[in-house]
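hey all, quick one before standup. I had two proteins in the batch that finished overnight and I want to keep them in one place so we stop losing track of which output belongs to which input. First protein below, input sequence then structure tokens straight from the run.
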Amino acid sequence: ARLLLDLARTDRGEAGEEAILPATLARGVVVWPELLEMARDGDMPTETREDATFWLGQMAGDAVAGDLEDLTSDERVDLEVREAAVFALSQIDGDAGLDALMRIARGDGDPRIREEALFWLADSGDPRALALFEEILGGS
């Protein structure tokens, strides 16, 4: 896992991006803190940061929902990475991801990020998301 994470950090090509998945599969190793660092690192290639963000949501879920939400509003972060953070939030089981998506959708941040949050909320089928749409559309 260490070798793969180092490769992800240093290789600026496809090998760096492709190293993240196998690093997440290593048994007995906690890699999500490093994935969060990669997602925030503006010097890394966007594609690698997107992959780190995706696997961060898959691995750590509730523990990183707040960090992922912070990424979505950080305008210093590439749009693609911010969108990956919205998607990662949509993949978290339980309330943490959905609650974060609802805050993003209600917020006054980047309209493209709000649109992504609304898309994944619609896909969730959760009654709270439907109530949010009704609220936004002026139905209640």
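OK second protein, same deal, sequence then tokens:
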Amino acid sequence: SYVHVHGNLLSLDPDLCQVDTDQFESLCARGEIRQRAGDAEGAMPYFKKALDLVSREFLSDDQYVPWVDTRRHELHEKRLLLLFRAGELSENLGDSRNAIAYYGKILELDPLAERACQRLMTLYSNRGMRNAAIKVFENLRKSLKDEINCEPDHLTMALYRKLIQ
């Protein structure tokens, strides 16, 4: 049987069913072990596979179920951290194209992610893509103003000023 019932608890048989969130967390953990051991290149395939598993929000059809909200938030945060880690590793490996993609995905998921904005502005600037870097800044500035009525921090502003000079 794929489903087991123990008292009031339903569970899936782990030998017969694969759960994408469990796989995601396992791949993240395996990648982190590789990264901590100093093997950034060996960590990236795990991170890429993990990110491929979570292409959309956890149980997006169940918007008003309390336990789902908690798990969805956990997975969203882990996904953002993994995207940032993959972006940093890509930068360290000299792969700015993939780093740009990872940081861009962070900003799609969280338009207020200022650190990702800073990294993206720097990468675009380093590649001579000044207008793209300015656009990233302008999008962040608008999101911050609309969402929480504040301005970008001093480091982001300094990067912007350097771009427009």
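Flagging for whoever picks this up: The radius of gyration is 19 Å. The mean pLDDT is 88.
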